[in-house]
Amino acid sequence: MKYLLLLPLVFAASCGTRPQLVIRPLSPPAVEPVSSVRYGEVVRPYYVGRFVDPSHPETMHEQHPVYRIESSAQWNLHPDAGTVPNLLNPPPNAAYQSPLTNDVLVAEMNRQREITARVMQEAGRLAQSYGELHQMLGEMKNVARNNVTINARITEAERRIGDFQKELEKLPAATAATNTSTESLAKP
Hints:
By secondary structure, the chain is of the alpha+beta class. The protein is built from two helices and six strands, in the order αββββββα. Strands 1-6 form a two-stranded antiparallel ribbon. Strands 2-5 form a two-stranded antiparallel sheet. It has a two-stranded antiparallel sheet with strand order 3-4.
């Protein structure tokens, strides 16, 4: 048994003196990138707040992200697939064809554009009318203040006229009394 343990030491010592053969791997052959053959899956995170698990009402989940596979991996059927796909905008499905636009749809869209333009124009007119109304309201407030001031002045003038009339009524009676007293003094 002792001899069996020494056997690996002898082989190790003999290998150390020989030149070692270095094996270097060959570079791999040029292969198309996987994206030119197959699209990867698109995974998007959604952030969910606190919620109670509907299956287990005694369980509450804390705020955490939920990851959802938006588009699973699929074969690239486009012939010009030498470009790297944009991961934010997954490639369109080759089997999907956009719906054709017909004349009714185009006419409806044009009608909606015209209606929108008219609504915007009416909104501009309404804003202008509102500005004019606001300006007129300010002017009417000034006129109302001036009317109050004029009414106060007229009331004051009428009161003073009434006071003058009372004084004038007193004046002929006083002058008549003074005339009679002066006449009686002048007659002796």
